[in-house]
Design goal:
The protein is of the alpha+beta class. It contains twelve helices and nine strands. The protein binds phenylalanine.
Length: 338
């Protein structure tokens, strides 16, 4: 009988279950009316009085262990399926505010996509530049007044370095490394020492384009820009090129697009019917030579536009400072834009 009790003690100790049914079966098998332990108590009555003490203690130990074990299993089972803790997994999740893309990013991405369809790929360059990449290689002679067209932030400790005033510096970096054909578009942040107002800011964004190959003509430039204007502003958009000047292009032009008022004249186009959107021209042979590209063999065109300006026209934004204020009431409005 002692051996039997020891076996049952081991079995009870090892018993583990997460099923209510199994626990109940165990209880019936051990402590039920015909359970093993219950029967052992009946047997105990017939035992010799001298052995009663030892057996009695062991048997009680077994009974208590079995009862405790069953209770413990039941409690842990209840805990794991408890819903009174306030956790209701069937409730819908809490919604949280999702951000939206900044209008500058939206327009930059759209411009990149339009030119990607014409085979242009994206190139980027540093914002802190040297004089060579921003001015000298782009055919701005030293002391030439054209440098004043772009008020520059110089690095105080070393004025050979400056914050780039235009993304044209990236053209130079690419042409120095790569021979034509080159067909790239260069989005980026630029800096000019200008008073901040509704129309101008000291930090803004440009996208510049460059195409260099054999026999590239002004007609190619015009067609490329016309495609861009229609994709960006709609099929009915007309373009107009006016002669202009940039040191790095010859001839140079500025491009206008037709205003939505259809030439009737409105505040936006200042009653001219046209809106200026970019500068462009045929790359000056001096620029190609400065970068080690044979200007007798290759020609090309370049263009550059301000992303803020394009976004202002597209979204009817009246003040350039809004882009930098991070006011969510402004930014939220572009959620559904694309
Ligand atoms: N880099 C010129 C600017 O910042 C724009 C431009 C680019 C003009 C390329 C012509 C060709 O104003």
């Amino acid at each position: 009988m002692l051996e039997k009790i020891n076996e049952l003690l081991a079995e009870t100790n090892n018993f583990i279950s997460t099923s209510a049914e199994e626990i109940e079966q165990f209880r019936v098998r051990m402590l039920g009316k015909k359970g093993t332990i219950t029967l052992l108590f009946d047997e105990f009555k017939t035992i010799e009085p001298a052995l009663k003490k030892e057996f009695g203690q062991k048997l009680n130990e077994l009974k208590t262990l079995a009862q405790d074990k069953i209770q413990q299993m039941k409690t842990s089972l209840e805990d794991s399926s408890d819903t009174s803790s306030g956790l209701d997994l069937s409730l819908p999740g809490e919604s949280f505010a999702i951000g939206s893309r900044h209008p500058i990013s939206l327009i930059r991405n759209e411009i990149v996509q339009i030119f990607a369809r014409l085979g242009f790929t994206v190139s980027e360059g540093p914002e802190i530049e040297d004089d060579w990449h921003v001015f000298s290689a782009l055919n701005f002679p030293p002391e030439h007044p054209a440098r004043d067209m772009q008020d520059t932030f110089f690095i105080e400790k070393n004025p050979d370095y400056l914050l780039r005033t235009h993304t044209s510096s990236v053209q130079i970096r690419v042409m120095e490394k790569q021979q034509p054909p080159i067909r790239i578009i260069m989005p980026g942040r630029v800096f000019r020492n200008e008073a901040i107002s509704a129309r101008s800011h000291c930090i803004f964004h440009q996208v510049e384009g460059l195409y260099i190959a054999e026999n590239v003509s002004f007609a190619d430039l015009k067609q490329t820009l016309m495609y861009f204007a229609k994709e960006m502003f709609g099929e009915k958009t007309k373009i107009r090129l006016r002669p202009s000047f940039f040191p790095f292009t010859e001839p140079s032009a500025e491009m206008d697009i037709s205003c939505n008022c259809n030439g009737k004249g409105c505040n936006l186009c200042k009653y001219t019917g046209w809106l200026e959107i970019l500068g462009c021209g045929m790359v000056d042979p001096n620029v190609l030579d400065a970068c080690g590209i044979d200007s007798k063999k290759y020609t090309g065109f370049a263009f550059g536009m301000g992303i803020e300006r394009i976004a202002m026209l597209k979204f009817d934004i009246k003040d350039i400072r809004m882009y930098f204020e991070n006011d969510v009431r402004f930014l939220n409005q572009f959620k559904a834009a694309f």
